[in-house]
Specification:
The chain is an all-alpha fold and about 160 residues long. It is about 75% helix and about 0% strand. The chain is built from seven helices and no strands.
């Protein structure tokens, strides 16, 4: 089988299983880490030329994005309390925000076709993951979460959006 196609099928299976395991938190977390690491190792095993050189400023940008992504994800885990979602004031899904930074940084670090495929699969899944997660949150918290959702952006802080536009 074509290694690129196998990589895509691997990511599709990963996200399908991950979505199915939402009711089994311990298994979901374990699978999330083990599955992602396995797919990223497979990604790295596929020989491919880089799209552009990664020395100099590109290496710094990739490192900064990855470090920021790790900090956002780590901070999110430290602050998160399931019944107190309203304390997350900047974005509703800070883990996804951190993952976006990590994925973009990863691509700039290894800018080749397998990495582009992996990054695209992850970025395509994020809106699906948000939809599934918010559906569960609305079912659990009802109007309280709906009001929170109206006030707080999903993954990009409002202050950053204002500066960009």
């Amino acid at each position: 089988m074509n290694p690129y196609l196998l990589l895509i099928v691997g990511w599709l299976a990963y996200f399908l299983i991950l979505s199915f395991l939402t009711s089994f938190k311990v298994f979901q977390r374990l699978f999330c880490v083990v599955g992602a690491v396995a797919l990223l190792f497979y990604d790295g095993s596929i020989h491919s030329l880089n799209f552009f050189p990664t020395q100099g400023p590109i290496r710094w940008v990739s490192s900064i994005l990855v470090i920021l992504g790790v900090m956002v994800v780590q901070s999110s885990f430290r602050k998160f309390k399931p019944k107190e979602f309203t304390e997350l004031q900047h974005v509703r899904h800070p883990i996804y925000s951190g993952v976006i930074l990590l994925v973009v940084g990863f691509f700039f670090f290894i800018p080749n076709l397998p990495t582009l495929i992996s990054c695209a699969c992850i970025l395509i899944y994020i809106p699906i993951g948000i939809y599934l997660e918010e559906k569960k949150l609305v079912a659990t918290y009802g109007d309280q979460y709906i009001e929170f959702r109206k006030k707080v952006p999903a993954i990009i802080p409002e202050k950053l959006m204002k500066e960009i536009s």
